[in-house]
Amino acid sequence: MGHRGAKALAPENTLSSMKAAAAAGARWVEFDVMLTADGEPVLFHDDTLQRTTGVKGAMAKTPFAKVRGLDASLGFARRYGLRDGRRFVGRADCRVPSLEDTVACLLELGLTPNVEIKPTAGLAAETAELALTRMLALWPQDRLPPLISSFERASLAVAQRVAPHWPRGLLAGGFPRDWRQAMAALECASLHLDWQRTRRADVAAVKAAGYAFAVYTVNGVRAGRRLLDKGVDCLITDRPDLLLAGLDG
């Protein structure tokens, strides 16, 4: 599953990144959804705009009319160097995308999304409500349903109510002590964990309980092999091209 599209191949959480994931052979992509100041769901990871767009300010205080025109490739260009990143700067598919534009792109590419609800502090329920209400109107019923994931259990509780027929994934850094109770209460389909904190016994326990196990963010073939050997079901990666080629067969 491509992480934020394909984060190492194109600017994260942009249509360009979704296209890069599809070109690499991924069939699933994960991306983050936040709300603008006027309640529009957009693809973005940070509370502030600076890292990826170079613009100061908080997402929660910036209106959609301004956000939608921001170039989200600048952070990618700085990280990977202008020689490699400059081809993305100024491209229309590298602007901060709306949920509508993203869904249209995914449907054209044949990708299925893992929608991570990434709320600004205090907006866990509102972000899930608005994002999922919009997704329900956009996503065709005859397509494989999206996976809805979040670190915020309040967001997953809203997903359980608003889109009960869509699978839910509980995100965590370390293995949660109360995973059984939380997964059952939220009727989750999967647990998503930091790959470096993933133990074979925990994977076995979760799968024995009937849930899937996903790990993030795996960018090495050797690590991917070890995790698959532990029984992990899904590798979330910035480099779907590398893992698909290295793990094939």
Quick structural overview:
With 249 residues, this protein is of the alpha/beta class.
Helix and strand run:
EHEEHHHHHEHEHEHEHEHEH
- CATH class placement: Alpha Beta
Reported by name, the CATH topology is: TIM Barrel
Shape: globular
CATH superfamily: Phosphatidylinositol (PI) phosphodiesterase
Task: Work out the strand percent.
Answer: 15-25%
Q: How many structural units, i.e. domains?
A: 1
Total beta strand runs: 9
Helix content: 25-40%
Output the radius of gyration: 17 Å
Mean pLDDT: 96
Q: Main β-sheet, in a few words?
A: 9 strands, mixed
* CATH architecture descriptor name: Alpha-Beta Barrel
The termini sit apart by 17 Å
> Count of helical segments?
12
Give me the secondary-structure category.
Answer: alpha/beta
Overview of this structure, please?
With 249 residues, the chain is of the alpha/beta class. It has one domain (2-47, 102-247): Phosphatidylinositol (PI) phosphodiesterase (TIM Barrel, Alpha-Beta Barrel), CATH 3.20.20.190. 40% of the residues lie in helices and 16% in strands. The chain contains twelve helices and nine strands. Strands 1, 2, 3, 4, 5, 6, 7, 8 and 9 form a nine-stranded mixed β-sheet that branches. Strand 5, helix 8 (153-162) and strand 6 form a beta-alpha-beta unit. Helix 7 runs parallel beside helix 8. The two termini are 17 Å apart. The model has no long low-confidence stretch (mean pLDDT 96).
Which terms summarize this structure?
TIM Barrel, nine-stranded mixed beta sheet, 9 strands, 249 residues, alpha/beta
Secondary-structure map:
Blueprint: E1 2-3, H1 15-24, E2 28-35, E3 41-43, H2 50-53, H3 64-67, H4 74-80, H5 82-85, H6 99-109, E4 112-117, H7 124-138, E5 147-150, H8 153-162, E6 168-172, H9 179-186, E7 190-194, H10 200-208, E8 212-216, H11 221-229, E9 234-235, H12 240-247
Parallel strand pairs: 1-2, 2-4, 4-5, 5-6, 6-7, 7-8, 8-9
Antiparallel strand pairs: 2-3
Helix pairs in contact: 1-6, 6-7, 7-8
